[in-house]
């Protein structure tokens, strides 16, 4: 069993002891689930096509991203003052993971730890996200690129506002076009609504395959919401299975 699998088994066991069997399918113990997952074919990791993100399609017409390559887009984001969130941030949180990864995960906005470290999803929700990805054979080191709809922390972790999302949208559009993932996963309402272009709540949006500019897209609950509502774990698990099918097919 790998370190990630052991961590997952421990986590599942802890949740079960706390009375939450939600994420473990009926009839399985956490260890059995991990064994089952280990025998499931993990989706291939990095695309390995050798294409530099800088060489991929231009972003003409986008007022933020313009013709920028990946590094230039990142530099533009790091110096961005397009909205009020620039005033309160410690760091811009651009992305983490592999820019050649087949899966791109899009979250909402950085929290306090992310603002401090400059990396997305490094708090408790991020740990759960890593475990969920590990459960389906994916990791941010090898196969996943992670970013947020909004790159700067909103004060006191309030919801990002429409004008802040709009100000940041060119960066996300640029990231998607330059990373060119095979599959997209939006976690939480803000990412799900931005990526699908729909305004329904996440509970109504999840469970379906969408496309963002031709890229297959699944949306699910935000891991922070899963920590507060363990009853949604099962639904998230179903969404991850959908995601795996798309990755296997891509
Ligand atoms: N929640 C998010 O949506 N993104 C992060 O980076 C951290 C927490």
Low-confidence parts, pLDDT < 50 over ≥5 residues? 36-60
- Characterize the overall form: globular
**Class by SSE composition:** alpha/beta
Named CATH topology: Uracil-DNA Glycosylase, subunit E
**Helix content range:** 40-55%
| CATH architecture title | 3-Layer(aba) Sandwich
Q: What's the CATH C level?
A: Alpha Beta
Widest sheet: strand order? 1-3-2-4-6-5
What is the terminal separation in angstroms? Answer: 27 Å
- Topology as H/E string? HHHHEEHHEHEHHEEHH
- Gyration radius, to the nearest Å? 18 Å
How many discrete structural domains? 1
Short recap of the structure:
The protein has helices spanning 3-17, 30-39, 70-78, 85-88, 112-117, 124-135, 162-179, 189-196, 202-205, 223-228, 233-249, and strands spanning 96-97, 103-107, 144-148, 183-187, 210-212, 215-220. It has 250 residues and is an alpha/beta fold.
């Amino acid at each position: 069993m790998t370190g990630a699998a052991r961590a997952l088994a421990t986590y599942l066991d802890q949740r079960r002891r706390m009375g939450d069997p939600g994420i473990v399918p009926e009839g399985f113990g956490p260890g059995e689930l991990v064994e089952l997952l280990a025998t499931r074919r993990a989706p291939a990791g990095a695309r390995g096509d050798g294409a530099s993100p800088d060489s991929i399609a231009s972003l003409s017409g986008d007022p933020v991203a313009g013709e920028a390559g990946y590094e230039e887009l990142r530099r533009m984001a790091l110096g961005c003052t397009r909205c009020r969130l620039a005033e309160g941030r410690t760091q811009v949180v651009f992305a983490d993971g592999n820019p050649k990864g087949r899966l791109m995960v899009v979250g909402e906005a950085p929290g306090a730890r992310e603002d401090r470290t400059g990396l997305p999803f490094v708090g408790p929700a991020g740990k759960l996200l890593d475990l969920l990805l590990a459960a389906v054979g994916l990791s941010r080191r090898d196969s996943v690129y992670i970013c947020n709809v909004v790159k700067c922390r909103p004060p006191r972790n309030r919801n990002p506002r429409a004008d802040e999302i709009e100000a940041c949208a060119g960066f996300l559009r640029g990231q998607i076009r330059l990373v060119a993932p095979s599959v997209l996963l939006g976690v939480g309402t803000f990412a799900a609504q931005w990526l699908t272009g729909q305004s329904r709540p996440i509970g109504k949006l999840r469970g379906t395959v969408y496309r963002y500019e031709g890229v297959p897209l699944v949306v699910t609950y935000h891991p922070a919401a899963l920590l507060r509502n363990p009853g949604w774990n099962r639904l998230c698990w179903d969404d991850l299975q959908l995601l795996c099918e798309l990755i296997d097919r891509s």
